Amino acid sequence: ALLGRVAALAEKSGWDARAKRVLDLGAAAKLPSGEAALKSMQGKVETEGKKLAADVKAKGEESDFEALLKERVAWHQAELKRCWLGWCAHLLKAQEAKLLAEAGNKDTSNATGGGGKELGAGDVLEALLAGTLPPT
Hints:
Blueprint: H1 2-10, H2 17-20, H3 25-30, H4 32-58, H5 65-102, H6 121-130
């Protein structure tokens, strides 16, 4: 799971350009907080990868470890992108609620995000790396 999330962030293509205007994870990963979160996650990936490889060898599995993980990593890469789109939708709904409140419109029942703290790109990056879905 971790390997797929980190690998998805390393991809340069395949990201929806319109959603990148809302939340650019590549730019968020270059922020100091993003770099720290990514470095921490990469350390976990390496540690867990070594442990898992040792477990596979201990069970007598003859297959290549990377080949065993290939499909699972691809699935988690796609999952991170789906979660990212969900976070983009959440941020847009929160922005809509804020704009409606500023305009004096009291009917913000269809928009989420009011009342909570404002999330930045770094917060969402950490949530995505942790596998946290946006609130509904």
